Amino acid sequence: MGGATGGVPGSGEPHPLSQFVLKINGRCDLSCDHCYVYEHADQSWRTKPRTMAPAVLRAAAGRIAEHAHAWSLPRVRVVLHGGEPLLVGAARMDEILTDLRAQVEPVTRLDLIMQTNGVRLAPPMCDVLKRHGVRVGVSLDGDRAANDLHRRFANGAGSYDQVRAALALLRTPDYRELYAGLLCTVDVRNDPLRVYAALLAERPPEVDFLLPHATWDEPPLRPAGDFTPYASWLSVIHQRWLADKRPMRIRLFDGLHSTADGGPSGSEQLGADVVDMAVIETDGRYEQADSIKIAYDGAPATGLSVLTHSVDDLSRLAPIAARLAGVEALSAVCRSCPVVDQCRGGLYAHRFRTTGTGSGFDNPSVYCADLRVLVEQSNEESKMHFADTEPDALGSIVAEIGSGFGAESTIGWLADQQPAITRALLFAVIDQHGSNAAWDALAAVESVDAGAVQRVLAHPYARAWAVDQLRPGAVGGGLSYLGGLAAAAAVHAGVAVEVDVEIDRGVVALPTAGTVYWPSPVTGPARLKVEQDQLWIIGPDRTLSVNLARPEATAWWQPARWVDLGGWGIRLEDGDPARDCHRWTPAGRLDAGAERAWRDALTEAWRVIVTDLPAYAPGLRAGLRAVVPLERDPAGAQRASTARDAFGSVAAALTDPGDLAVLLVHEFQHGKLGALLDLCDLFDGDSDARIMVGWKPEPRPVEAALQGVYAHAAVADAWRLRADQDPRGPELYAKYLGWTTGAIAALRGTEALTPLGVDFVDRLAATVEGWGS
Ligand code: SF4
User: Fold this and answer.
1) Residue 350 contacts by C-beta under 8 Å, 6 or more apart in sequence?
2) Which of 65, 113, 423, 649 could form a disulfide with 460, with the two C-beta atoms 3.0–4.6 Å apart?
């Protein structure tokens, strides 16, 4: 049988291996029917210990350290795996990680990852993982229906709620640095766009799609008449992901794009990279990759153990060495395939066949047809997309924004990423509530006028509302807000819809369209009905109607107010309850005098920006959509704020137009940087570095220091440029310049910045140096 290996080390040359999958626990608390450990041909788990004994763990750590030392490896990756690794409990996990690090870290850099179903993830375990710098990947197959199709407990109950709770925990500020990403096993019976939206809603740094395990003996599910259903399914997501401007990394697609340019795949599913990996089972035996378990009973066995053999011994075995070889080790069919440089035969395990020509692994993948189509379609889709829409490579965008500014097209591109993020977050909220009536209404509008839905998804506070709803312990509010968004989209599209909403202390918001002010400050259910040019609000004690064709405000209807700034406009946002996410209380409905004062102040502030601070004007024009009036400070202090999840909006108390201009520039810098951080890492999320800054007495986390320095650089620049017009200018310039240069130096002194982050800070430093002293 192909792939079987004896218990004697091969006679070949040893090779360096840098990845080790450590089976610290051999059992699982889920009974997923697509699991390769328990549900496929290899049943060796039945004879192995439940957990890895301390002596075996120490032997494994010693073998890894010995190997890393012998080959002078700069780093090794250890993946804590199972079964389910969380079942060892926090105390034992602490011991395991302490032992591992004690032996390996003196020799090389240790990169620790855990792959888990997430069901038992809780703060005590997260504290241990955080202390030891472990990053956590969680398995999730999409929305509730998709996930619970396979990922179930032994009693048949789905695991979706537990996994979502684990992901919510990983998104909290305390544990966000642990969050490595999601692993999704494809099932073509699931709606690909719902799966995509559900995954995106979890805001993962990265997603990987796994083709379900199959061999030529046990081919994958293929609906009748569809020869490449996996390519079709993935292609739907690929196109949406490109259209959404790639809001998260998807390893399979990134791998396809990279290999199209001759780069590495970064994915075992596309065989372009060598697989220098070993598995260490709970009993200490070395095995080949887990996925080979699907081939036949005993398929991954090597006959070697950490108790008796070195990693060098393992690496000499023919099957291990074969995984390190290139195209020449593939089947004859693959070697002559036009896409072999990108596919490389797919996942090794998927090549297995028991009998006939090419028995063993000397075959193309059982997914060959899908892989071929997927590679070719992906190349074509990417070519068309990047030719049409991509403004520049991400590195260029980072450099441009890092300079402190950003062209209108670049900031517009950043703004264009936001609706996809908002859409995913809204989907997560709906999924959490188990109801989709408002979502369906939004979808009905979208089927007629996609632009109308895009307009409400671009509303800054739609995302802020969704994030608030998804917070652990968030207090209700139901889907009323979503009903308001659907009604607003229907108003924009001129489409008839009816949605349920809640009157909240006399207010119902239709964000971007207007606000209903009920004649009394009641709270209670209502229904919004949009029909032609009419909006009906059917409330607890009466029915109101609004003629949408007439733009005037009435006592109970305030259409969205725009301040025209000459070719573009800012919305005065005084009705949306979700705007109450800033540090200070938002002002209520503006009366005519207050509205006029804001129009005048914003018009004059924009004139100041265009005249005195023109380099910031294109970015503001492309990205600033709303200003939220705040209550004034009783003592007359300035107030202004940006919310991390409300890109495109600035909250401020009314002030002198010159100061308002500087506040808008200052706050929008935070928004720009936040939107950039949605797309790329400028600093190492694992770092616990703290940066001394001039504007706070205590050292700040890296992200806070980056945000501060980026905004303060712009304020320094503003006072430098306005020094002639304001007597405070020179003094304020000196203050903000000192804070900026100090923080730049401190950031450069850490090792916490990624290469992109270093470039970002260098660009900012170059701008500041250009001002002279
Ligand atoms: S597409 Fe098929 S033949 Fe081509 S490399 Fe992949 S598995 Fe081999």
Assistant:
1) 211, 213, 214, 215, 291, 365, 366, 367
2) 649
